Amino acid sequence: MSGERFDIDHGEDADYFNLGFDVVDSLARSARNRLAFLRLGADGERDALTYWELSAGSNRVANVLRGLGIRARDVVLLLMPRTSAWCAAALGAVKRGAVIAVADPDASGAELQSLCAAVRPRAIVADAARAAAVEEVRDALGAVGIWMVSGGARDGWTDLDAACAASSGTLLHMGFDEMTRPADPMLYVPFGTAAGEARIALHPHAQMRAQRGIARGWFGIEGNDIHWTLVPGPWTSLAWPQLFAEWMAGATAVVHDAAAAVDPRDVLHVIATLGVTSFCTTPDLYRAIVSCDMKAYDLGTLRSATCAGALDAATIEAWKDGTEGLEPRSGLGRADTGLLACIASGAGARADCYGTGGDALAVTDERGTPLGHGVQGRLAVRVFPAQPPGVALRYADPAHDAAAFVGDWFVTDERVVIADDGTIGPAMPVQGAAAHLVYTIAPPRRAGG
Fold first, then answer.
1. pTM of the shown model
2. What's residue 404's pLDDT?
């Protein structure tokens, strides 16, 4: 097979790229016993995978999928909670060249029908509990022809666990036509927009380059780091920054199955007992955590803190006081764009994230026309002549494409305004938010500037 493959340490521009082969399998060889995934259950149980186990487990899934007739670009829908089985199934499908669609494990029958109608999966992989729910709407799920269940056998379904146990941990075959290029589709991600509209974004394999930027440029993590992103509620739109970014850095991804109401003392306990080195959560959870006696916990391993949103100055100072001066760094991103801007690791000031920022960001109207200072508009990302790797290829619904891809721009529904100093900020700023936080983005390059 000709063509240059991705080099995890050096290469970015390569003819072929696959997260499974070029990143996870490479780490399985160089750091086989390092944890890739650690799930903490609500009752304290742990579910973990090393990079070696993830590599072998995903090979088994890829072999099973090949035996069932799954081909490159077929869509495999995953209806499972965040477990080691999910990781192996997702990565195995990626190795097979299939496109994975991430479903909310708690999706209703109607929501599942809507998702299947949009992405047209050829196969569904569900855990035992969700498989029973799928049966209730099975006849309405269109072109699905392959049904796989993990965690228990079921009539009419392929027992994925048994099939993997009988398969080899070495990939049995890979044809030239199954090799994935950076621009090939990889991942369907459902999410809700700022206006509350449900959308499904399709990302290419190149999107993992943006995840590497998130991991190293914003989280500030590398191999041997333990990173924990904690965002309560449905996790489907955040599947990639909760797992893939960490794997792109060779770090350990921690996930926590917590109740909707997270006890901030439990969060501090986990950070202290696991030796978490990098932590990311929401503004609301930061405010809850700083209300606790943070100094009662040993947070000495924590060297990076990031926030998915804008933090007020009082919360920032309270967190710094509880962590001996560690400042949380905010970032702005979406499921269809990746991280747009952030305060970069080690920068000490605002900085643009990998693949976007600078003249790639602007405020436009709905027609993609850039607006002047003080005029409220929409945050837009330049996609011509080169599309940043974090921006989706397209949406599942072509009508959404027509509204988003306008001329040279990918126009979001985030309402923003350009200040007199040229910085881009929210149309309704967070009360008390420090001026240098997430919503203050480096100004676009001006003609002659």
1. 0.90
2. 95
